[in-house]
Amino acid sequence: MLHIYNTLTRQKEPFEPLDPPFVKMYVCGPTVYDSAHIGHAMSYIVFDMVRRYLEYRGYRVRHVQNFTDVEDKIIKRSQELGISWQELTARYIDEFLRQMDALNVKRAHVYPYASQEIPEIIRIIEGLIEKGYAYVVDGDVYFRVRADDDYGKLSGRRLDELQAGARVAVDARKEDPLDFALWKASKPGEPAWDSPWGPGRPGWHIECSAMSIHYLGPQIDIHGGGADLIFPHHENEIAQSESFTGCVPFVKYWMHNGLLQLGGEKMSKSLGNLVTIGEILERHDPNALRLFVLSSHYRRPITYTDESFAAAERGLERFYAALRPPRGLPGPQDEALRRKALETRQAFEEAMDDDFNTALALGRLFDLARAINAARDESVAGPGFTEAQATLRELLEVLGFRLQGDGQPQRAVEAEPFIELAVAVRSQLRAQKQWNLADWIRDRLQELGVELRDTPEGTKWVWRPASSDQ
RNA sequence: GGCGACGUAGCCAAGUGGUUAAGGCAGGGGUCUGCAAAACCCCGAUCGCCGGUUCGAAUCCGGCCGUCGCCUCCA
Prior knowledge:
By secondary structure, this protein is α/β, with parallel strands linked by helices. It has three domains: 3-266, 3-Layer(aba) Sandwich (Rossmann fold), CATH 3.40.50.620; 327-398, Four Helix Bundle (Hemerythrin (Met), subunit A) (Up-down Bundle), CATH 1.20.120; 413-463, no CATH class. Helix content is 46%, strand content 16%. It has a four-stranded parallel sheet, sandwiched between helices. A four-stranded antiparallel sheet has the order 5-6-7-8. Strands 12-11-13 form a three-stranded mixed sheet.
């Protein structure tokens, strides 16, 4: 049975959806004021893997992911660029979706925009005011944390401790320094919507509550996001949602991925230490980023280095190799391979059932890959071989790897006819035993990032740029 | 200062009481190859430090050292 670590209870719990086989999953989406970096990619790859595994296990997942398109940074950035916030956000939303497609992240079923949920947001804020959980000050509306007796339960904080350590400039108009904005009155020139409290825009936390409630209902199974969202974002979401609907828990399983680090610190826009998704996609196989991410457990922070990324890239080759066609004829060892495939599937499921232990699961898949390669070397073929490959392919796809064709990343397609030509010329030379010239061609191609492999079936080639590009 | 996580071979990383401590990358030695490459075979760690609990600990407890996250926008 699948167990999931729940941030709320700080332990692994058996996964029992509210209404099986349906699973309602909400994942916090990006604020679209700039290009996404690989820290974002990590989070979405992780939850894509979660969704795929749930689907593999027979669940019917409904996946909602928001776009925050109303927010201070968006306003600032669009003003700097002299374009409308709509134009700015449309640009980055489009880029984001294309990059997620490239990373083989399944699209959510619904992508609500904050700017299009204003009526729902206003409805919830009005409800919170009515119930005494919120109050109006000069066109702003704040959530009254003191009215929520279990505030802090997700992040394990108590109000008193928070106040003691607060470094935030205190807004004297708020009843409590920790009260947070549900609605912000707008200044002239800022995007604004009419509301019972005057023109303004929603606070950050309320949009996720509104969208989650609107598209998935008052209670959902899984809510995911980066560990940096636990406080205050998700804490506040719980406070708002549960206070408004009265349904507890708002979310049955809170899942948080560890943060991706670069240079010893969290990769973030504000620190400026980032590698964008675009930079990775330009030069690398998207599967390599996925392997890099899934090589460690999703709750642990991972550090990006060129070396560890390159290791993932090389490891990927191993899987591709295992998916190459067999040689030889059916033999007795074929049956052993069939058994190995069954064992692997079982071990894979066992690993994944333990809070999505992808690192262990991948280890099992590498074992299977080695068995397949060994069998091919021994000229074993037959139904067992085919089944082993089918299993490997299927389970890799459950983890979200894209394995069309022979697994060759698609790039520089226009160069391929010329590479084929050079390879053909070299084959002629080899047939005439002109080794010097043949080797020269091979070396030159290597320098250009094309690696040759002479096999009994002829010469094969793959793209393999020299390491540490960028 | 408060809350939390982590520290396993050169690098990445699984393992949280009891077989030979998974797997990947790099490296070394082989097989194969015209030579290579790929693949396959073989080779490496007693688990940050100290103390404790236990018949037995990487795995539990305490202390120390170190790294990181959250407490402010953030996947």
